[in-house]
Amino acid sequence: MKRLVSLAVLTALLGGCVDTAPTTTEYGSDGFGEETLATESFNDAYLMAPAPRYYIGNAYKVEDIQYIPTEDYAYNQTGMAGIIPAELNGTKTSNGETYDMEQLVATSKTLPLPTIAKVTNLENGENVIVRINNRGPFVNTRIMDLSAAAAQKIGLTNQTKVQVQVLPEQSIAVKNATLGKNEQVVATDEVVVARPASEPVVQPAPAPTTEPAPIVKPAGDYSVQVAAFYAEDSADSLVARIRKYGDATVVKEGDMYKVRIVNLTATDARRVIDTLRTNEGMAPGLLKNGRWVNADSI
């Protein structure tokens, strides 16, 4: 698992607008090794401004792959990135902002809007801090598209492999600014989660000295899918976080690592879906005997 390291000072400067739109225009309104994440500290009025709304959204499919938007402060993935088409300048984003190609912004298929992230061009090592404020790209070959200004910052002129790392402290701060809440970041060995500032941090109980009884998995036909990732470590982090809701596991299908709570009866599946929606703001999917069914059919 990747660990957070100490804060470093960063001044995020806005780049100039350049006309670097890729030749492909599919989109919707709705050489260097990977770096260890250093949580950046900065004060940029645009990046950290409250949004019209804090948007997560429901599960959806791009061709045959399902994406389930969710909060993931341990998000750290690599994949291809492109450039948001210039003709979308001035259109509304999924969280109600106006897309400005001169600002350091980006899209994501699953991260909440807005989220603050560090994007590193793995071909030249250049990086930029962006505000993720729109869904997309709606193709399975890219994990992110960048504004012209952000692309220029890291020398991206077409499609390039990048590393995308959520900055948890800044992401929670911009979420709080949007929702009017006050939360703090709690770092653990496995995942970074948000906790209300008034809630005490409860230390885990000492491990029992006797051998615990084996866990008997219930026999059930239903599975609840919580999220799907390209990065296995992100899937493992989410499993550690949601294990309290049931038998959470990672299922690898193709290039995707899918996080599911398995072996559920219909009653338990309904309870898990409702709890994830209420407690986590997630939009889980439902499978019966490995086949997708309507999550509200039980």
Outline:
The chain is built from 4 helices and 17 strands.
Feature tags:
5-stranded antiparallel beta sheet, 4 helices, Barwin-like endoglucanases, 2 domains, 298 residues, disordered N terminus, Alpha-Beta Plaits, single chain, alpha+beta, 6-stranded mixed beta sheet
Overview of this structure, please?
- This protein is of the alpha+beta class.
- It has 4 helices and 17 strands.
- It starts with a strand and ends in a 5-residue tail after the last strand.
- Residues 1-31, 185-203 and 211-217 have low confidence and may be disordered.
**Oligomer state of the chains in this structure:** single chain
CATH level 4 superfamily of the largest domain: RlpA-like domain
How much of the residues is beta strand, in percent?
Answer: 25-35%
Helix percent band: 10-25%
Q: How would you sum up the major sheet?
A: 6 strands, mixed
CATH class of the largest domain: Mainly Beta
Number of domains: 2
SSE order, as H and E? EEEEEEEEEHEHEEEHEEHEE
Distance between the termini: 36 Å
* Outline type: globular
Q: What's the CATH architecture of the largest domain?
A: Beta Barrel
Structural class: alpha+beta
Instruction: Give the rounded overall mean pLDDT.
Output: 79
